[in-house]
């Protein structure tokens, strides 16, 4: 169902036109991308001990981050696949950060300096968030360069959470070949992301 919506969105807008429409605050495009991705984030957060309200809050933060980065030209996304990927990864990372932070808030003091307790906190600073956004941006730019076959395979593995057996069947490969292809695609993605 999600893939069908992506196709309809990309049929109406060309790859670069879609990003330009997003930058121009085209209401139909913003709503479409927002609706297409919310359920993926909701399911992920609910599966990882979160609530619906937490999912809404995290998703809104991630969507605003995406919107700001596209508007400022900090994210060179090409079409709905990269916009959707960035949005999901950002929401997932923010959820992980929140879980670490909550876990560490509950920790008892582990040491004292000058009589004041030190709690090991996982609060992210603005610099750390900027660094994280930069890393995500590099990965998304690399993702756009790895080729259609790798994009399809990695999207099915990481965003659609399909098994290697199912992916292999869809791509006319056995599970072992699909796994090898995934490994090669990930290697290529890492190399492209680490290029200067």
Give your account of this protein's structure.
- The protein contains 9 helices and 2 strands; from the N terminus they run αααααββαααα.
- With 196 residues, the chain is mostly helical.
- It has 2 domains: 124 residues, no CATH class; 51 residues.
- The protein has a two-stranded antiparallel ribbon with strand order 1-2.
- Helix 3 crosses helix 4.
- The radius of gyration is 19 Å and the shape is globular.
Task: Itemize the secondary structure elements and their pairings.
Elements: H1 2-12, H2 15-23, H3 27-47, H4 52-71, H5 80-105, E1 111-113, E2 116-118, H6 126-145, H7 148-159, H8 164-170, H9 175-194
Antiparallel strand pairs: 1-2
